[in-house]
Write a structure and sequence with these properties.
The protein has ten helices and 14 strands. The chain is of the alpha+beta class and 363 residues long. A hairpin with a 4-residue loop joins strand 6 (105-109) and strand 7 (114-121). Helix 3 (196-211) packs across helix 4, helix 5 (268-284) runs antiparallel to helix 6 and helix 8 packs antiparallel against helix 9 (337-350).
Length: 363
Amino acid sequence: MMFSDSDFRSIRDGKFTLDFVEATLTQLGSDDPVVLAGSGSVTQDASGNLKFKFYTKIQNQKVLQRLSGRWFLTPGVIIEEDQYYVLIGKDRFDNSWEARRVHPDFSISFVNNSCVVNAEIRSIGTRHEVHGGRQKSVKVFLIPGEHQFPYNDSQIGTEEQGFSKCTLYLGEGRTCEVRTTRGSVLVTIEPGGRELDEYSIRVLDAVSIACGSLLRPQAELSLSGDVAVSTVFSADVGKDKLSPPISLGGSKTKEFESVVRALVDCDSTVFHSVFGFWYRVLRAFDNGLENAAVVLTTAIEGVLKVAFQGLVYPNAEAAEEVDGAKAAIKGMNTLTPAMRNRLLSSLAQLGSPTAFRVLKDLA
């Protein structure tokens, strides 16, 4: 099964369902794993979270005893690996779906050994071959919610009104198209010759920073060669947003594109550090003004140290002058210890430019 527009619509509208005519739950982290076979279904609840329900009969008394002893978890203790299961289910079209690290809740009737399993799953996906293959790899993300992008094109023949689409050209045949779809966003990334998964996530993170929203996919379609992978995710209730860091609008598409390109093309260490600081700012945004201000100023200093080391750290000539001055002050016997320490402290600050000075130089 490969996601179509109708599949994306059902996921977007919270109506995604899967019915498994055959399904298995296999225990992880055990040399003698419990394996349960039966049937079940996956549905979306009103919040967009994925719920799994599974029906089986357990004839093995040893398995019954093992499961009945695992109903209670100790608060404050990390859940062990053998508490998780892998779900593999076949739908009525013979597509095989897989969800990993499922933490099931077993409800067992000892009257007839029947068992009903309920669980929340973070994601579930299916993989299959595409006849004929594709010359270009592509990744499509369905992002819930409305986000601010510099749309400068329309979607003729759809329900979307006005400017509702923009395409970012990232160089060497790489593109990122963003278009609205009834309260959600579809992001389509063509990575050129880059590795599909890693590059697509990098672009999505860069676009997140540029648009001021943390873009978390609710569904994903990957096409590479003759393989298609379709994945559905539980919705993340934390729809974090920031005020847009750059002015948006149809005339600002090139500026937006340049920001994304700069983030995508920069050194990996720098990018991941910048994204990490930005993510912390995003998380602190709703936790009070004082906390948000502290996190923001710390993040600014961190970004300056990571991305602008040449400005933050003094050059060799300046460092040599500061070291010479320190040696001279230490040799002045006429100074009191308190005065000597104060002068040395001032020199130390002189050798470490402040964020204010660095920002002034950058401006």
